[in-house]
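User: Sequence in, structure out. Go.
Assistant: Echoing your sequence, followed by the structure tokens.
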Amino acid sequence: MAESKQRSADNAANQMMDIAAAKGQKVAYDRYEAAGPQCKFGQLGICCRACNMGPCRISTNPEKGAQTGICGATADVIAARNLALRVAVGASAHSDHGRDVVHLLLQTARGKAPGYSIKGPVKLRKLAQEWGIPLEGSNEEIAEKVALTALEDFSRQEGQLRFLDRVPAKMKERWEKMGVTPRGIDREVVSALHSTHMGGSSDAMQLIRNCVRGGLVDGWGGAMIATELSDILFGEPKPLVSEANLGVLKNDMVNILVHGHEPVLSEALVAASQAPEVLSACERVGAKGIQLAGICCTANEILMRHGVPIAGNFLHQEFAMVTGAVELMVVDIQCIFPALRTMAAHYHTKVVSTSSKARFEGFEHIEFDEADAIESAKRILVMAADNYANRAPEKVHIPTDKQPLVAGFTTEGVFDHLGGKYRPSYRPLNNAIIDGRIRGVVGVVGCNTVKAKQDECHLNMVKELLRHDVLVVQTGCSAIACGKAGLLAPEAAELYAGRGLLEVCDAVGLPPCLHLGSCVDNSRILTACIELCREGGLGDDFAELPVAGAAPEWMSDKAITIGFYVVGSGIFTVVGEPLPVEGSPRVTEYLTDGMEKDFGGKFAFERDPIKGAHLIIEHLNAKREALHISPMMYEPRAIETIGTKLSRDFVPAK
């Protein structure tokens, strides 16, 4: 076996990479190393391909090389234009996800999707009331009106998104002043794309405002619609116990992985997994049953609602195949490696694509039909069961690594978790912050990237925040990283949290990191901030709250878009890899400094996760001081006690 390069903070991942290396199989880290030095012009954001006269590369040295493109575009314009293009792509990805959920809700309400039903009637009626829709009639009749109303936000040409009625008044005033109040979802995406065409906008600051607008239409539009309507259609998540990492795969069961981002098919797979014909197919090949597990954000969707275990995050998609125990991987959209075809060829694993929006050469394609969802799911499950007989026992290496976790937290759930059934309220959380037990709340989210040791940046940042009494909320691959490391279990508070945070976690039995769902569910962080403002005592604007965001290992365009709607909403955000704008000092300075004056939030670029955590801690302290609330009760937990049960002899803060 080849010597381990320890490319991951996850022991199971390193085992799989060692096995792959010994067999001459390539994974993403190998392809990254083989690619050699990456283009510095592209990394700095100053390579322009907006027309076919280029590509044009702008020199960062004023004494050497071109200072403008052929058309005269400066480094500022090129960097801002490239960024606006990526934000538009990210917004379209989340928003198209949201559109599909709306469409399914509409089909379900009209009786044209027999495999689905409305499992969140309370949230349905709450949203209908918020949108001014009469509550007379059946759930299906109300759901049809809600779906049609939601669809209007995609095509809206004038006015504003409906969810902007939730936005604090000060924030809306800033948006109006800056000209970034989002209108229709499709309109903003198209307008942003239009501005990046050759001969389009050559005002760098206007292009950055397009980035903000494109981000806001995602966070307060497409992503929020996806989250709210998924809760209506599939049910509101509740806290539940599950497990994470490759050890969830079973040697004596048919292992099926769901990978991607849309919950539409995965919900049907969960429902069909215990169908008699599926179980009969398993029995026929000598398997004890179906073991569903997830990769990436589809994993988070079915974890949150059904407790289906997580096999891993983004970079685990190849590692899971190397176990030799996966009969079938079913994929939909986003974050799927074309290289899965190559890896699958070394094993018996079948890869099935299901979305008309994402076809892959070499994958078997079964078009998912909402009108025949359960039958489509059964077909895939039986195909996997039949493939169990082709498993090669000598190739099977399932790591024992797995950790228990608690997931299923939502904005609405916090009312009950902290306030209790008798008096559901955000007051206990606000008071814990005001009294100095909790320093603040930070969303640590985002992807994996081969530019870092897998998961390490997430874990180091989160642990540093926890020891400083910061409550961490998470989504996406970051949540999975912390789940695999045991940080999503209530016991983690004893091992990693400072005393103040530990007291809160002990009182209500919560983990110190709360799993809020998939990457589209970052909108739950926005709605939680709304409730912090409504409860009072911490300001009446996101920019006044002791909150922050971070994406230590971001990778995709969606992450850039999320960053812009978080910062545009007034929240300080640290990203690990700098956004691709550093070839333009003016754009860089605006994003990391000047933006705060206009929007209340700004970015910080910091590759070191510990330094990034301390930028956040300093920010939270400044917000607390500005609010004139109590100092912290206790000193931060000592570094040497991390990972061990904490003595109750704490040092009070000076």
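User: And one key feature?
Assistant: The chain has a mean pLDDT of 93.
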